[in-house]
């Protein structure tokens, strides 16, 4: 039932010789992406506030810059599918839908940059995007150059309408042309999501800053659990590929949308934080309720997610309804790491469940004990020895995120 952290630390050893070396995404990317909330709404007559348009992204840039998101670290504003015109222009270049993006993409990117944000966009390696717009389809050089000229800082390249056979090579070729533009561009690939565990993950590390591994998230708690279960089931394989500059991506946060309760939102934030997942919000920032905004802006959660060691967390305890993910983080005292513990209660409904465990059951062994901070229930941190039982109440379909720091010896040996 328990997996001791000290023994599974071995799993964290990442030994790739070659990783993409563009200096980007050294911690998991933080930002906002349009897909999950705004999908492919192109009808601006009936949905003037929700359609994929220049106005939506300017409004979102304003909210990110003015409502604390940028300050908290959410820097990438990423347009997903459905920005393109149905045809390339007469020079064979990609162009946006002229009605919905009347000022062009460069002008929108300039606006986003003027707010201190970074700009991301979406394309597809195949003949068409998933929604049917023109794909890159072999036009690697001209498209890479177009994106660089527009000021793109992040590109998500999907994998619809392309043979899975040899997909890695196509992503590699486009990545080479991105590199040749000399503009630093975070490269998000999708071939692992299309090829499953047969995908060449060594190639993903070499080519991409992050990659989608699994299906699209839908706006419901069952999907959060399903994705978390898939990553946990395959953690022994997946986690060794993730680290600074190259990340597994379980897809967007759905916090603040229609499908998750407050407790379920804390649970998604907890699991994604501890997995060292990219945190890409997909919510209407003009309308988000303050309690959901506070979850997204929780500075302790964000600092755990952004820990510079970049070690993805592991499911270390699975007791059916109660599952505990753990992630080594800084600071360290001598050779003792700090840890994040994400304790998730999968039970639907009913009443809160009291979870009890000791830190030594997870292999923590700092002689002076640890201080524990309950991230989403702020109170003074408590100090425990590794054998003292910790009891914590976790709401149904909810979670607790704990930050567990080793206590430094108070009796430092004097050399005088
Ligand atoms: C291009 O690749 C080289 C070699 O890996 C790397 O040093 C450089 O930072 C890359 N440049 C960009 C803009 O990605
Ligand atoms: C996977 O990719 C790596 C790095 O590009 C390559 O060396 C290796 O041959 C590939 N493996 C397979 C089975 O194609």
Summary tags:
416 residues, alpha/beta, TIM Barrel, Immunoglobulin-like, 2 domains, eight-stranded parallel beta sheet, six-stranded antiparallel beta sheet, 14 helices, 16 strands, binds 2-acetamido-2-deoxy-beta-D-glucopyranose
Entry summary:
The protein is an alpha/beta fold and 416 residues long. It is built from 14 helices and 16 strands. The protein is globular and about 75 Å long.
Task: Write up this protein.
The strands form 3 sheets. The chain has an 8-stranded parallel sheet. A 6-stranded antiparallel sheet has the order 9-10-11-16-13-14, with helices on one face. A two-stranded antiparallel ribbon has the order 12-15. The N and C termini lie far apart (48 Å). A hairpin with a 2-residue loop joins strand 9 (314-319) and strand 10. It has helices spanning 5-8, 35-38, 54-66, 69-72, 104-114, 140-150, 167-180, 191-195, 201-207, 221-233, 235-238, 262-274, 290-296, 299-305; strands at 30-33, 76-78, 118-124, 154-158, 186-189, 210-212, 247-249, 279-281, 314-319, 322-333, 336-345, 353-357, 370-374, 382-384, 390-394, 398-406. With 416 residues, it is α/β, with parallel strands linked by helices. The longest helix is centred in the middle third of the chain and has 14 residues, at 167-180. The protein is globular. The protein has 2 domains: 17-305, Aldolase class I (TIM Barrel), CATH 3.20.20; 314-411, Golgi alpha-mannosidase II (Immunoglobulin-like), CATH 2.60.40.1180. The mean pLDDT is 95. The structure holds 2-acetamido-2-deoxy-beta-D-glucopyranose (NAG) (2 copies). One 2-acetamido-2-deoxy-beta-D-glucopyranose (NAG) is lined by residues 21-23, 179, 182, 184.
